[in-house]
Amino acid sequence: MTEARLPSPHTSLREFPYVVVRFRCHVCERGGDARLAVLAAKYGSDALVGRLLRVFVAGCPWDPQNPARKPQKYGMRCGGYCPDVLAPRPPDLPPSMTGFSLIQGGKADMLPAEPAPIERRRRVGDVDV
Ligand SMILES: [Zn+2]
Questions:
Q1: How far is the CA of 94 from the centre of ligand 1 (A)?
Q2: How confident is the model at residue 4 (pLDDT cuts 50, 70, 90)?
Q3: Residue 82 burial class via C-beta count within 10 angstroms: exposed 0-12, middle 13-18, buried 19 and up
Q4: DSSP string covering 25-58
Q5: Residues paired with 85 in a beta bridge
Q6: Terminal Cα-to-Cα distance of the chain (whole angstroms)
Q7: CB 79: neighbour CB atoms within 10 A?
Q8: Rounded to an integer, what distance in angstroms lies between the CA atom of residue 28 and that of residue 80?
Q9: Does the CA dihedral 31-37-43-45 come out positive or negative?
Q10: What is the 58 CA–ligand 1 centroid distance (Å)?
Q11: What is the pLDDT of residues 71-105, one digit of tens each?
C-alpha cells in the first residue's frame, strides 16, 4: 500500500480499505471493532473516519469536549484513536509476512533470569562465629 492510500481521519467510509474499523483509547481502555458496512448504514458512506472517532470519544468519561466537564489544563483527556489510521501495515497482515523488525534495546537490557544474591549486612558489634 502506498503512502497516498493510507487511511487518514479525512478518509470516508466509502474509501476506507479495511472491513473492520477499530477504535481504542489509551486512557479509559475502552475499545471496539465496528464493521464497515454497519458504520456506513448508520452514518452514511460519506462519513469521515475522524467524525466516527469523535463519536467514539464522545462516549468516554474523559471526553475533553463534554460540556459537563470543566476545562482542565492538565486534566485527563480521552486518548481515543483508530489503530489503522495512518498505520503503514494492514491490520490483517499475518505476523509471518511482516518479516523481522529491529527493536530498541538488546541482550544488555534484558532482566537476569536469576535474582541477584541477597547481601546481608552485619549488625554493629556482631562477632564472627
Ligand atoms: Zn477514552
A1: 28
A2: low
A3: buried
A4: ESSS--EEEEEHHHHHHHH-TT-BHHHHHHHHHH
A5: none
A6: 74
A7: 15
A8: 9
A9: positive
A10: 8
A11: 778 888 888 999 999 888 888 888 788 777 777 87
Residues near ligand 1 ion, CB 5 Å cutoff: 25, 27-28, 60, 78
Q: pLDDT at position 10, please?
A: 94
Written as nine digits, the cell of 43 is 452514518
Give the model confidence (pLDDT) of 51-73 as tens digits.
999 999 998 888 888 888 887 78
Distance 101 CA to ligand 1 centre (A): 30
Residues 49, 85: contact at Cβ < 8 Å? Answer: yes
Distance from residue 21's CA to the centre of ligand 1 (Å): 16
**C-alpha distance from residue 82 to each of 20, 35, 36, 61, 73 (Å):** 11, 13, 13, 18, 24
What's the CA-to-centroid distance between 77 and ligand 1, angstroms?
7
Sign of CA dihedral 64, 68, 73, 74: negative
Separation of CA 24 and ligand 1 centre (Å): 8
Q: Residue 45, exposed/middle/buried by CB under 10 A (0-12, 13-18, 19+)?
A: middle
